[in-house]
Structures are given as C-alpha cells and as structure tokens.
Amino acid sequence: MKKLILLVTVMSTLSITAQTKTELQKHFEGYYKQMKKQGDIQGVINAMTHLDVIKPTQARKDTLAYIYISEGRHIEALNTIGIEKSGTDSDLNTEIKAIALKELGDRKRALEFYNVLYTRKPVPSVAYEIADLMLQTGNLEGAKEKVEYGLANVTDDMRRTYYETQQPYQTSLKAGFLYLKAIVMYSEDKDANQEIALATLNRALAIDPNFNMAQITKEALLNRKKGTE
Q1: 14 to each of 1, 21, 41, 199, 218, how far by Cα in Å?
Q2: Is the model's pLDDT at 133 over the cut of 70?
Q3: Mind listing the domains of the chain with CATH numbers?
Q4: 135-155: pLDDT as tens digits
C-alpha cells in the first residue's frame, strides 16, 4: 500500500511538473512573439534563452547565437553554441562560428569554418572572406586563388558590408574583389606591381566611387609613389 501511495505521489509530481513546463513554454513563446513585434532585441534574447532552458534544441541555440552575432555580441554567440567543429553543424551554426572568430581576431580558426562553408557550397561571398583572411595570415597564393574564383563568379547584384567607417556601408562585391586583387598584387612585389595595383583600385572605384577602403588604399599607394620618385 505504501509503495502504491509513493508511486501515485511520484506520478502526480511528474504530471504537475510537465504541466508547469508546458505553461512556461507557452508563456515564453507568447513573450517571444510580443518582443519580436515590439522590436525589443534583448527581450527576444531573454525569451529564446528561457525557451532553450525549458526545451533545448540545437536549432534554437543557433537562432539565439545568430541574434547575438547580429548585435555584435560575438563572445555571447560562441558561448551559446561553442567553438567545436562537427560534421553535423548546420550552415548557420558554421557561419556564426566563422564570423565570431574572425571578429574576435582568431583568424586561423575562423578560416577553418569558412573553408567548411566553401566546401559545402562555393559562393563568391564566402570566397571573399577566405581571401581576406588568407591575406591577413600571409597566404598570398591561397588568397589569389579565391580572388580569381570570386571575380569569375560574382554578379553585379552581389554586395558586401564594410565597417571601417563610423557608419557601415555596402558596396559591390565585384569592387571588393578588385580591391583584394590589388592588395594581393601589391603584396607580391611592392615595387614592380605598384602601378598595376593602382590601376586595379581604379577599376574598383569606377564601379563604386564611394568605396572607402579602395580610396584609402589608393591614397596610401599614391603617397608611397610620391615618396619614391
């Protein structure tokens, strides 16, 4: 009899707990919708965090990490999904890790994740990020290969956002690849390739005269040219 009473008590407790979790889940699902409607990003993050505690899923973690990355909160994003590499990682999961690690200055590991994305689906936008990271790590041959791939496959409607100014701006991805090509050529031989690098930067600026990074680099090369004349 005592065993039966104990069993009933345990089952009742489990039932109450399940009901409570269901009610909490419904509450935070409603809260999430309301915060999203109001455009309250921190509220959305709070709701998603509670939902993940109540009923954790990898998709929910990936979404939460994506929100963090969109807000420039790279450490929080990585704390949410980790930095381990797995064959079962979604494209979103892999991209978040690549972006966060790049922004945090861990170029080597960022490259690993960008290469995974490129292996799955080679697209110009990912080729650009790989080329940029390879340039920063001194791999000129690898960067040159990705730049040439990008120029061969980029379309006029593709854009990229740059953040070196106080206000982020977008420019043509094709112009971006020409900018990288100029950097690669100049890095290969500063004296012999200075003129062709300048000409390549002019091609980028012909596409977008407001491309700040290309203009800054052009001015730096022109000042160097004046100094060597």
Answers
A1: 20, 10, 34, 73, 69
A2: yes
A3: 46-80+89-107 (no CATH), 122-228 (1.25.40.10)
A4: 999 999 999 999 999 999 999
